[in-house]
Amino acid sequence: MAPAAPSLPPHMPPSHIIFKKATITL
Predict the structure, then answer these.
(1) What's the rounded Cα separation, in Å, for the pair 26 and 16?
(2) Residue 22 has pLDDT above 60, yes or no
(3) Nearest 5 degrees, angle CA 20-CA 25-CA 11?
(4) Once rounded to an integer, what is the mean pLDDT over residues 16-23?
(5) Buried b (16+ CB within 10 A) or exposed e, 6-25
(6) What's the mean per-residue pLDDT of the chain?
(7) DSSP per position, 1-26
(8) Per-residue pLDDT, 3
(9) Is 26 within 8 Å of 17 (Cβ atoms)?
(10) How far apart are CA 26 and CA 24, in angstroms?
(11) Distances in Å between the alpha carbon of 23 and those of 4, 10, 18?
C-alpha cells in the first residue's frame, strides 16, 4: 500500500484506481 502518487503504475487494475478516487472524494 503506497501513498497517493501523481502517477499510478499501469499494472494496477482500474478498480483500485476508482477505489482510491472514491476515497479521495470522501
Answers:
(1) 15
(2) yes
(3) 20
(4) 73
(5) eeeeeeeeeeeeeeeeeeee
(6) 66
(7) -----SS--TTS-HHHHHHHHHHHH-
(8) 62
(9) no
(10) 5
(11) 11, 20, 9
Rg (CA), the chain: 9
Amino acid at 15: S
How many Å apart are CA 4 and CA 12, to the nearest integer? 13
Whether residue 20 contacts residue 4, with contact meaning beta carbons closer than 8 Å, is answered with yes
Contacts of residue 8, defined as CB under 8 A and 6 or more positions apart, other chains included, come to 17, 20
Determine contact, residues 24/4, Cβ cutoff 8 Å.
Answer: yes
12: its cell numbers: 494496477
